[in-house]
Amino acid sequence: MHNKPAVLVSRAIFPEYLELLRQHFEVVSNQADEAWTRAQFIERLQGKQGVFTTGSERIDADLLAQCPDLQICANMAVGYDNFDVPAMSAAGVVATNAPGVLTETTADLGFALLMAAARRVSEAEAYLRAGHWQRWSYAMLSGHDVYGSTIGIVGMGRIGQAIARRAVRGFDMRLVYHNRSRLDAATEASLQATYLGLDELLASVDHLVLVVPYSPAAHHLIGAQQLAIMKPSATLVNIGRGGVVDDAALAQALQAGTIAAAGLDVFEGEPRLNPALLACKNVVLTPHIGSASEPTRKAMVKLACDNLISYLTTGRALTPLN
Ligand code: DGY
């Protein structure tokens, strides 16, 4: 006989955090990291008060109707486009995400992609590995400067602002940004950031970094029409979410030389990629690793666990979305 709440952990996690959860809950986990179908996920959710999710498991009205015991869904990601938050609120289920703990790590990756795309790092490595480097030549693999150039950041939340600090303080860049709501004057001044409308920003930047969460309103925010406004020497980086960029239009723009290069960590329909992107030499591709350093991934897992523990033992979530 036990009276601990029951929790499901949907994917493999660091074992020490599974142990932490076991101190408070009856835990069913997926340490084998099996690819459960939605039906299997729902089946395993039966009788569970809490679920640890990674950002991939869709929680919507249909699932909630089949899981009447569920009280909290704790995402280890800051993004929560896998949650239908209004449906969760209607069902009285708390949603939590993992803000703050991955800001700097994700900003680092954004900057890495920016530099790799602008300076053609992947293309240069492929050239070298293929044995094409027989002689040096003056214009060989020349790219575009980062230091002292103009960066445009679309999505000026925590991660956007962390990229802004790197750009202005480390690389002496001119910074323009676009956001749903304008930053307050003090934050703008401390970041040396100038607010622009999207089209004006697109026309003026050397490097565009997108840190926009997915929502139907942000679907294909950057498509053929927007890419056509950009400089042919410009680079585009997307570390926000797939679907914010029209990947087919981007591949076309990269092939046509409408823009010079791109660095992408997120994709429409990932983990599948638009094959046209794979065919482009001038794009650096990473498999959604923005937050992937061990300390950061541990902090993300810990925050999701702490949300489950706090809510199911005291009734208060640490980082609630509803
Ligand atoms: C997030 O936290 O939303 C990231 O995309 C996952 O790495």
Helix/strand layout:
Layout lengths: L5 E4 L5 H8 L3 E4 L8 H8 L4 E4 L7 H6 L5 E4 L9 H6 L3 E3 L6 H16 L2 H9 L20 E5 L3 H14 L2 E5 L6 H7 L1 E3 L2 H7 L2 E4 L13 H6 L5 E4 L8 H10 L4 E4 L10 H4 L4 E3 L8 H21 L8
Parallel strand pairs: 1-2, 1-3, 3-4, 4-5, 6-7, 6-9, 7-8, 9-10, 10-11, 11-12
Helix pairs in contact: 5-7
The chain binds (2R)-2,3-dihydroxypropanoic acid.
The site of (2R)-2,3-dihydroxypropanoic acid has 7 residues, from loops.
| Relative strand content | 5-15%
The number of E-state strands comes to: 12
The structure class reads alpha/beta
Low-pLDDT sequence parts: none
**Helix-strand string:** EHEHEHEHEHHEHEHEHEHEHEHEH
Helix content: 25-40%
Largest sheet: 7 strands, parallel
Strand order of the largest sheet: 8-7-6-9-10-11-12
Termini separation: 33 Å
Report the principal-axis shape.
elongated
Count of DSSP H/I helices: 13
- Any idea what the radius of gyration is? 22 Å
Bound molecules: (2R)-2,3-dihydroxypropanoic acid
- State mean pLDDT (0 to 100 scale): 97
